[in-house]
Design goal:
By secondary structure, this protein is of the alpha+beta class. The protein contains twelve helices and 14 strands.
């Protein structure tokens, strides 16, 4: 596994999260076949999953008042809070198989923690635990011929900021058997790590990579910064959702939310025309993982379709939702839509 390095004299290493997400994309598009890994840290930031409704998951007023950036990544999963006390790890590989990539990545990180004496295990679909508490949350992003797994590692954290910046739904917390975010989170400092943050980062890089780093050139970084601009596009960030905001007099807004074990939280919203029984403004949001574009491949096919079992099954047969969201069967999606 090769380490991707940012040159030490690079003048524009600003601790902006989109900058590092863009490095992942650049590596996936331009580096030769193989495995790549790098570590990074950012200024205070809430990082939202590709399909989440930011307004419902983030306390935007708190973030604005306390200088916390709000960013949307291209991978699925839920919101996480990161700052300079939190390490981010990125793993880029050639495999297209989500389960295998995740298992390899989370096992690799857990094994390094075990070498430091921690009782660390990969758990559930995307967490790494020490004991019964989460120390790392991870997500997955697929590109043609390449996969990216990335995640957090809490060296230390501010529970006040963590609690106030992110506002997960009550259903999601209850599905995990807890009442608040800090109750299910720990950090390496609380668990007694003997290494400084800098020593820990070096330990992880040396243990995972092969000692043959690739240092990004100024030309590489120029191309990376071009990719970064897309993360600031308002249409991509989607702070204020427009779906369902303008309903016809004959329509009603249908909203169904459910936490499905092993898959994550789903929120289905659409407007239903009471005269024609047609679906419009169909949207799926949540912290699930995906292999493809949910908006284009999973939401749009329901536009204008009648909300009856026969019509919906016909759509489901054509799109095969499991190929888009791993584990989401047609039966589950039909239940989410119809209730």
């Amino acid at each position: 596994m090769r380490h991707i390095k940012i040159p030490e004299n690079h003048k524009n290493d600003p601790r902006r999260l989109p900058f590092y997400l863009s490095i992942e994309e650049w590596v996936a598009k331009h580096m030769p076949a193989g495995d790549y890994f790098f570590s990074w840290r950012v200024n205070p930031t809430v990082i939202c999953g590709r399909n989440q409704e930011i307004d419902k998951e983030v306390n935007l007023d708190y973030c604005c008042q306390h200088g916390v950036d709000v960013v949307r990544r291209k991978s699925g999963g839920g919101c996480v809070y990161a700052d300079m006390q939190n390490f981010m790890f990125s793993f880029i590989t050639d495999s297209d198989k989500v389960t295998e990539v995740f298992a390899r990545y989370t096992s690799m990180i857990a094994e390094q923690l075990q070498k430091l004496g921690f009782d660390a295990i990969a758990s559930g679909r995307n967490d790494i635990l020490i004991g019964e508490k989460k120390v790392s949350g991870n997500a997955f992003y697929h590109m043609p011929g390449r996969s990216i797994a990335h995640g957090t590692m809490l060296y230390d954290f501010d529970p006040v900021c963590l609690l106030n910046a992110i506002t997960p739904s009550k259903a999601k917390l209850e599905s995990k058997g807890v009442k608040s975010v800090p109750m299910r989170v720990t950090c390496l400092k609380n668990e007694g790590i003997a290494l400084t943050p800098e020593e820990f980062e070096e330990f992880m890089i040396q243990g995972i990579t092969d000692g043959n780093p690739y240092t990004l050139t100024e030309e590489d970084l120029h191309e990376i910064e071009k990719i970064e601009k897309g993360y600031y596009d308002p249409s991509y960030l989607r702070i204020v959702s427009q779906k369902g905001s303008a309903l016809k007099d004959s329509s009603k807004l249908v909203t169904r939310r459910e936490v499905i074990k092993g898959l994550g939280e789903f929120c289905i919203e659409y407007s239903l025309d009471s005269s024609s029984n047609e679906i419009h403004n169909f949207n799926i949001s949540g912290d699930f993982f995906m292999n493809a574009d949910v908006e284009t491949l999973l939401c749009r096919p329901f536009e204008g379709k009648r909300c009856d079992k026969e019509s919906l099954l016909q759509v489901l047969d054509e799109i095969n939702p499991e190929k888009i969201i791993p584990g989401l069967t047609s039966d589950i999606l039909l239940r989410l839509i119809c209730g």
